[in-house]
């Protein structure tokens, strides 16, 4: 008999207990319970447990200000017992085409959309997305965590495609997503600090974000936002997308909600949310995280209205 796995006392991964299910289920909408006439107001702040392909045709046009999509990548991956199988690149692109046009239909005329992927599927993502919207950029995220390979390069990068319906009319707030960096060699001009400020803990500069992100970690066991979902994105990652591309009060939609990161980050940042997720367990994780967000709206790595570099929690926590 296999010994029971011991969990470290420092492990802060979120757990679900059976006695929580009843109350959490009250916060989840079953796809079979959706009304015939679905409005934007109905969808606001809702977690829907349903098959995406079954629900999509019933959703109203142009209800979302921002759409964040983290679909299954073209890999063999198990999601709580449900298996997604890798396929030929052309078949994977056909899979994207089976739902992406309907998701893009849900975007407002001045809305933005972000689509996540890895090196293997990113070319298919680009081709599928540019059929529907105008692609403005590709963000490359150095997620650091990744399995080593003995005969290949370690895979530690992902792409996030940024697209809009109208390249002449979309929202983007640069000031809200600046990164606070410590200045190693502070430069002065006529004795005055140039583009940096002296603070009690050092010299800092607010820098404009590029399309290469190396300040965000994958959620792991010491982070309270971490769940058992195998491909969970971090709240800090989605916070950047939400702050840059949606106004306060906007509605953020995630068609592959997983354990709820998009909805949780949206709620913490004063936006409405709507997510669709096939797996009931992951919906419960989302519901529990949304409850916890009411008493703790903080986002690790984001404080005082700015994003901080990796491994600087000791600095921004002093200021909070």
Question: Could you characterize what this model shows?
Answer:
By secondary structure, the chain is an alpha/beta fold. The chain is 24% helix and 25% strand. It contains 10 helices and 18 strands. The strands form 4 sheets. The protein has a 9-stranded mixed beta sheet with strand order 1-2-16-15-3-6-8-7-14, sandwiched between helices. A 5-stranded mixed beta sheet has the order 12-13-9-18-17. Helix 7 crosses helix 8. The longest helix has 16 residues. The model has no long low-confidence stretch (mean pLDDT 91).
Task: Give the helices and strands, then pairings.
Blueprint: H1 21-25, E1 28-30, H2 40-43, E2 46-49, H3 52-55, E3 64-69, E4 77-79, E5 82-84, H4 89-97, H5 100-104, E6 107-117, H6 122-130, E7 134-142, E8 157-164, E9 179-182, E10 188-189, E11 192-193, E12 197-199, E13 202-207, E14 212-213, H7 235-245, E15 251-254, H8 261-268, E16 272-277, H9 280-295, E17 302-303, E18 306-308, H10 313-319
Keywords:
320 residues; alpha/beta; nine-stranded mixed β-sheet; five-stranded mixed β-sheet; 10 helices; 18 strands; 25% strand; globular
């Amino acid at each position: 008999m296999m010994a029971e796995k011991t969990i470290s006392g420092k492990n802060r991964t979120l757990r679900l207990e059976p006695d929580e299910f009843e109350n959490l289920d009250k916060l989840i909408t079953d796809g079979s319970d959706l009304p015939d006439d679905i409005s934007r107001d109905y969808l606001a702040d809702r977690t829907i447990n349903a098959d995406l392909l079954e629900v999509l045709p019933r959703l109203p046009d142009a209800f979302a200000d921002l759409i964040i999509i983290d679909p299954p990548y073209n890999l063999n991956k198990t999601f709580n017992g449900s298996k997604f199988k890798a396929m030929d690149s052309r078949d994977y692109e056909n899979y994207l085409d089976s739902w992406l046009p309907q998701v893009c239909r849900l975007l407002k005329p001045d809305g933005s959309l972000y689509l996540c992927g890895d090196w293997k599927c990113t070319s298919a993502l680009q081709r599928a997305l540019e059929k529907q919207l105008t692609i403005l950029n590709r963000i490359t995220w150095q997620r650091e965590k990744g399995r080593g390979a003995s005969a290949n390069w370690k895979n530690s990068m992902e792409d996030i495609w940024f697209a809009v319906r109208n390249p002449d009319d979309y929202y983007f707030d640069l000031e809200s997503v600046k990164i606070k960096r410590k200045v190693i060699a502070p430069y002065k001009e006529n004795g005055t600090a140039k583009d940096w400020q002296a603070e009690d803990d050092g010299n800092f500069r607010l820098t404009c974000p590029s399309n290469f992100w190396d300040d965000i970690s994958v959620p792991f066991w010491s982070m309270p936002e971490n769940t058992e979902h195998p491909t969970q994105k971090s709240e800090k990652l989605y916070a950047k997308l939400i702050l840059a591309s949606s106004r306060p009060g906007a509605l953020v939609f995630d068609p592959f909600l997983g354990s709820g990161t998009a909805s949780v980050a949206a709620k913490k940042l004063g936006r409405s949310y709507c997510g669709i997720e096939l797996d009931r367990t992951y919906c419960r994780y989302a519901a529990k995280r949304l409850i916890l967000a009411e008493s703790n709206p903080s986002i690790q790595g984001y404080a005082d209205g700015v994003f901080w570099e990796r491994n600087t929690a000791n600095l921004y926590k002093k200021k909070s």
